# Entry
Amino acid sequence: MPMDRAQEVLAAELARLGALGTRKGEETEFRAVLPAAGDRGPRFLVRGAGDREFLRMNSNSYLGLSLAPEVIRAEEEASRDYGVGPGAVRFISGTYSPHVELERRLARFHGREAGMIFSSAYATTLAVLGSLITAETAVVSDELNHNCIINAVRMARPREKHVYRHLDFAALGEKLELAAGACRRAIVVTDGIFSMRGDHADLAALHATVARYDPLFPENVLVMVDDSHGVGAFGATGRGTEEHAAAPPSDVLVATLGKAIGVNGGYVVGSRTLVDYLRETAALYIYSNPITVGEAAAALAALEILDSARGRELLAHLSAMTRRFESGLVALGYETIPGAHPVVPLMVRDTARTSALVRHLRAHGVLATGLNYPVVPRGDEEIRFQISADHTPADIDFALGVLASFPERGADRG
# Structure
């Protein structure tokens, strides 16, 4: 059946996005990865750019574990032993020992009773909120929460939905008070690390606020944290925002294997009852294949590195490189949002100039991502730099040198 009329509408929308400067365009295609050598970290070759080598500063692989030989070897060995695909969903064709061991290891790492893996952290958030939100639930959400949380709440259709000002826990309390009496259950959901800005939720203060309102709800106020950018990149031992904030355990903790752990997949940890309930009700677990056995084995190997002296060394180096880059930005006169997390935003606050600076960086061998409206609010346009333990002092200084040569640099001073 022809779809010519529909395609005209789609093409017009693409043209509109292009005119606004918000179209993402073609994705960068990597054709090779060059290992670290001398005083520099890994470099990347890009399709269409010849032999130019690029420093990547837009990767979520905060510890560089996706290139760790032990992690690669673990995936290769498990794939030889079990094959490259799981075959079907787990309740139909069974599960594999590396999947079960990974869930146990994740629960132990976070000090929880049980864990459960999904195909991605996005799928985890959709599944968990979809299962926990009832017709008598109020959801209270930080205004800068990730798209996965926003879409999960929209699809789950709670009785009430409230959004509080970013990190404003007095406003959070006001929203909970509004929902009390009308709803039996409330779920307060927040990112641990807000990935566009690199700032974090003060989870200790959030828990203290929730504790005051919990008695008003017959089925409690549950706290759910998506710490996908925190786990493995934040806290002295990489246990994320809970550790950094010295906060009590959240009722529901969601995170990813695809960022600092360096592999693929998402997971949730919590009480045994919670996880057992999710296995029976979470559609994106029940009806979707898990990650491959090789990926599970690779994630186990990465966790062993993270939860060791070597992992603490990687975290300390990551922190040092983050401080070096952030202080360098300030010295050059750029505006940033100070923080300890390796997401370091360069606030440009203009779509056209953000795009110009991204092009300048790329032309000089640095890959970084510009974020424009509607990904961020108007006036918050930025370049999100992401530091990795793979980066060396020479890498950081190289990137700062490219930023120093930007002709319009003076206009970006904050």
Q: What stands out?
A: The domain at 69-306 is CATH 3.40.640.10 (Aspartate Aminotransferase; domain 2). The first helix runs from residue 4 to 20.
